[in-house]
Amino acid sequence: MYFLSWVKEPAAPVLSRRGGWRIKGDVWLAGAWERRLVSSLVRKYFNLDPGFENDLVVFHRVPSWSGEVDYAFGFHAHALRLGVAYYSVKEGWSLSPTGALASLLESQGAQACDVGFAGHLKGKRVELPEECAASSNMVLLRMGGYVGVARRTGGGGRFKVKDAAPRGFRKLAQGGAEDVVRANQQVLRESVREAKGFIMKAYRSIQGSGKAAVSFSGGADSTATLSLAAEALGPGKVVAVYSDTGLEFPESLRYAEQVASRLGVELVVLEPSARVVDLVGEKGLMSVDDRWCTRILKLEPLRKFYSNSGLKLYFDGARDYESFGRAKTPRLGYNPLIPGVTRALPIKKWPRLLVQAYLYSVKTPLNPLYDQGFTRIGCVACPAMHLYELHLSFSKHRGIHEELAKAAGVSMGDYLRMRWSTREPG
């Protein structure tokens, strides 16, 4: 279990084993697209640019609270919990701000309506004058020494105060990647030592000699696992195995080649035995409930590779914070579709922020797709994508998605509204 807090000079998030905000969902440093997103949402609701594009902003995954909401995350910056952003099929991106964000925005010059009451009105309904209520369905309120955010609840000037905080919150001096590494030195040192010890023990007891493999997708988790394995065993004893399903982002394969070269490890790229479009025409679109794509395009080439290579062990970057299913996966175990090879998970307990801090500490850049808004580095049409990621992918690789929709016999409108879990129209 990890907790999140901040150092303030300069501002940087800190992970620890005790004290601070308890991390329940995954937590990570927002990429460039994600920072622009929260800034644009603030501008949309409050007509003020908060300038988060260049700040350290921490996101944490929160559960979706209705069938309409496909994806939701909370965000923190400047040692403040600022709100929740969420994506729905009907409305796109929306924002639920906290009182802390209201206080920060007022300090930056955002207009707040004075309700003439010096007290904390969270949860109360208020009637606002026309000049305050006409501009938006969400407004900032000044309540003596407090400032809060209120949402319209009916016609006219009726609003409900959603949250409030003391006035005067301001931005802190901004930290960078080096400050994140410095602030997390202790947890990094302990976590890296434990992971490398686990890697060496698994190698000695299972592989014994020769090379061990790392399942490498080009995502942050597999990149960190590959780097840790190269540190623990030496680059000459590590082979990075990249499974090209035929739907990979071009950026990912280029990134994988660059990282393997930088680390000095062997890179093996496996190719699929069938075309994705042909399989979609035969089986329909892949989904979380039916990941035939993983079985046929990824695991089958991996099974053949391992059966021919003689390797007995591979390391994988799967983490508990990714999903409930992965949290149940044993740290040492087997994938039944890759028989005879042990699967080992060195960073199983790490939150993504720790993965990022480790990669910063060893000067390894992240896959550029993270700065383009993707939280998961998989295929162009991965069934595990959130709906907004599918829409981002469509904007980058429209032709591939049109081929898949045509092969499946569905319209592009239905394709882009499909629920990520079942691929049925939402």
TrEMBL record:
Residues 212-384 form the Phosphoadenosine phosphosulphate reductase domain. It comes from the Archaea. GO terms for molecular function: catalytic activity. Gene3D superfamilies: HUPs. Signal peptide: none annotated. SUPFAM superfamilies: Adenine nucleotide alpha hydrolases-like. This is Phosphoadenosine phosphosulfate reductase family protein. It comes from Thermosphaera chiliense.
